[in-house]
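Purpose: get a first structural picture of the assembly so the mutagenesis plan has something to point at.
Setup: two entries, given in the order below. No constraints added.
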Amino acid sequence: MITNTGNLGPMILQSLAPAMLYVPTPTMNYITVADKISMPANGGTTCRFMRPRALTPPTVQLGNSGIDPAAQVPQRDIIDAQMAFFGTGCILNEQVILQDQEGVLAWVSERLAVSMRQAEDLILRDYVVSAASQINAGGGSNGDNPTNLGISDFSLVSTTLDTNNAFKFMSGIEGTLKFGTGPVRSAYFVLSSTELQSDFDGLVGQGFKSSWDYPSTSSALPSEYGSIFNARILTSSEAPVARGASANGQDVYYNTWFGKQALTHINQDGYSMKLIYRDPMYSGMLAQNATLSVKFAQSQALTQDTGIRNLLCTRLASLGV
Amino acid sequence: MTEYSRGAKGSFVSTGAQKPVYLPFVPNLVKLLNYTASATPAQSGIPRAYWDANMGQGFSIVDLYNATPALITDSVDVNGISTFSAGLSLQYGATKQIIGATKADPIVFNVTAHGYSVGDIVIFEGLYQSATTGMPQISGMPFVITAVDDANNFSINWNGNQSNYTALSGSPTGAFVKKVLYPFLYVPGVSFIEAITTGTTTTIVTTAPHNMVVGQEVAFRITNPWGTYQLNSLPNVALPGSPIYGYIVSVTNSTTVVVNINSTGYTAYNSNQPVASLAGMQLPQMLAVGDVNTGGALITAGSDLYPSPLVNGVRTINGPAINGAFINNTRQGFIVGAGTAVGDAGSVLVGAASDVIYWEAYFIEYTSPY
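Result (structure tokens, whole complex):
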């Protein structure tokens, strides 16, 4: 009789594969486009920004009277943002740390760090949804409000921001003699949903250029899907979507256009992104439990309301799943 | 495991409507004592209530006075005690079919067992009576419920009694309403405009609470069909490129503010938008862009000396801030609902108006079964 694993099986049936599997994680684009400043310690609860207003250009000639014109009164706008604190953590019994085969402290630390970064981005995202004004797409063909994205919507928002004298993030990319590529305009960043990528693909030939068709991809960001006119589009699966919120009950997507300094992320001096490990020695009389935690301080403000717009749209067709 | 458990206690005076209680944690055990109902036993009074997370959201076990009055026990199975963690926006409640809506000012919606309360925020979709009639123009805007006529009817702040609006009837296909679960996570922000009164100052009525304060600097985004586009911050004819902002000089109520812009002679506001221009229709907006304040919220009887900002009438869980600052209003805690005991339709879990309620809330670290 042949001895096989049915009568002489391995005493231990499993072994752990050498590497952990990846954790599906959205790209975090909001922090990328936000200006960053640090609020000093001992500076109160609220960060204050000041933006001077333009003075009237003296376009009327002085004449020959020798009399000075009336003086102007300089004015400024003030923007305040209150600091807030965030944190989360895990309590790990020492038996977990002692007995589990994998490096629990290592991977839980990594997860906490990612959750902290994701919180930072989601807070910015939701703040922008609540604070930035919106333009409904009307250039699409689906008859909804907002419609799906049409090429004219990109022209409209770009025109709006240009007319508002918003600052573009990126200088253009000059054309090169590479087959299929073309120059890229100076651009604002537009943060969109990955669920809209097929709609962007549908605009190829009307103005959409895949990031692969840039003359050089050296300035393309990892999440950059492409560009349309003066917009360079970064996509993420965490981009805001109001499910079933259009006039016809379809999902509404927020495509946020950013000029420079439109959104500012504020951290607190000496209190940002702390990863904290507390040995079991700090718990109870038998010192049984370790803690791993993260905490951070963050605030945010629209610092140039004229340089930001949420372009709302629906999709041309339902998304396959 | 008391080292990792958490507890809190407090009290509130009931208004008769559901009461959110903000906490630094989400509890898994809540106890209520209605001092008023306990001190003056009367039929339908609920002197005590108990909720455990294992009961499920919206339930509660209660002591209840019967007709004698003597204490009996009962349960609240709908709108009892529930917990919440309001950290992400664009979350909605159940989608509910709209049976009908009046062509009136305000519009009254007929929705079977809507379950809404005054102050809830809702959005609408698919408000067509036919392909070219109905009131889909108000889709996409959040509305505060201004009146609850009964369990099946509620009102919102909008003039539907205009030529381009048609009443809804017969449960139109695709006509739905749903509650915005966590409004105002970040304030102040964008508000949608229901009405504008022009004059030496400009009065703005919003569709939902604006959460703005005196001294708030505001901008407008109004496209020509809505009229009063002259309020827009740009273009500026007198000083090209320089945005024109206004300042709030008084707050009439949660949905009405007065702005210091002299709008005499501006085009009248027009919310009578045709259904035919719905596709791509822009919505009129007012947004906060700054403030001119230097101090925090004023103290009130019973408040901290340095109170947190008020958002929709409730203080945030954060500390003091400059009035008009951009603030974070994410929050968590539990809600005492206005549900009734199964065996007594006259009872109300959250008590009657003016009832004094004491509460205890716990997060117990060790539970069995976990």
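Helices of chain A lie at 30-33, 94-99, 104-131, 151-163, 197-201.
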